[in-house]
Amino acid sequence: MTQNINKVVLITGASSGIGEATARELAAAGAQLFIGARRADRLEALAAELGDRVAWRMLDVTDGDDFDAFAAAAEAQFGRVDVLVNNAGVMPLSPLAALKRDEWKRMIDVNINGVLNGIAAVLPRFIAQRSGHVVNVASVAAHMVMPTAAVYCGTKHAVRAITEGLRQEHDEIRSTLISPGVVATELGNDITDPDVATALKGWRQKSLTPDAIARAVRFALEQPEGVDINEMIVRPTAADM
């Protein structure tokens, strides 16, 4: 039976793709949402469409102070914070020999530090209220390594380790890692290596739509207290990897 999600949920990277789809899915399930991303116009339009149970704020996940302010604004708006969905991520793939150091740093800043900033913003609240749920959106790259994706895979392996560490350290807080396979989103649109960009188009011939991952997030949140869905891998049925 479908549950009503009576929770306040923070979602990062909510202006498109998996984040936007998750906002739509959870709004339909009755959650109150505070959505964040860098593109204010998209956030504003989405919140207006979804109604008065959804509020928004611009967010740079790489800025710890900004993430703290984001969580504080959500608490001021809705009175509490129950769930964080760490979804923001970037994927400018390239061979290591291309020496794209700026792109490596960007992946580390967004994909790892962004997750840690989110956890730091909500963890004191969750400890104080002795409940909370952190959902980290990783990737099948958290479970494998492939050429051109060494740094990206490294960041997602790190997210997997961080999520498991959070689970082990806090019995009262639920921790979920969701690892999507190839999904038709804007992820990878920042690839500057032309050969890798072409390869990505090939990989996306077999891809999920973002709502598939949104339903996985909803499933994790719908579980009764005491049940923690620790990890899910969600792939297209015909996926090669």
Question: What structural keywords apply?
Answer:
241 residues, alpha/beta, 7 helices, 46% helix
Protein described:
The chain is an alpha/beta fold and 241 residues long. 46% of the residues lie in helices and 15% in strands. The protein is built from 7 helices and 7 strands. The chain has helices at 17-28, 40-50, 64-78, 101-129, 150-169, 194-203, 210-222; strands spanning 8-11, 32-37, 54-58, 83-86, 133-137, 174-180, 231-234. It has a 7-stranded parallel β-sheet, sandwiched between helices. Strand 5 (133-137), helix 5 and strand 6 form a beta-alpha-beta unit. Helix 1 crosses helix 7 (210-222), helix 3 packs parallel to helix 4 and helix 4 (101-129) packs parallel to helix 5. The radius of gyration is 17 Å and the shape is globular. The model has no long low-confidence stretch (mean pLDDT 94).
Q: What is the structure about, briefly put?
A:
With 241 residues, the chain is α/β, with parallel strands linked by helices. The protein has helices spanning 17-28, 40-50, 64-78, 101-129, 150-169, 194-203, 210-222, and strands at 8-11, 32-37, 54-58, 83-86, 133-137, 174-180, 231-234.
Order the strands across the largest sheet as they lie in space.
3-2-1-4-5-6-7
**Structural class per helix/strand content?**
alpha/beta
Assembly state (oligomeric): single chain
Unreliable spans are none
Q: If helices are DSSP runs of H or I spanning 4 or more residues, what is the number of helices?
A: 7
Cα radius of gyration in angstroms? 17 Å
Distance between the termini: 32 Å
The biggest beta sheet reads:
7 strands, parallel
Morphology call: globular
Average pLDDT reading: 94
Order of helices and strands: EHEHEHEHEHEHHE
Proportion of strand residues: 5-15%
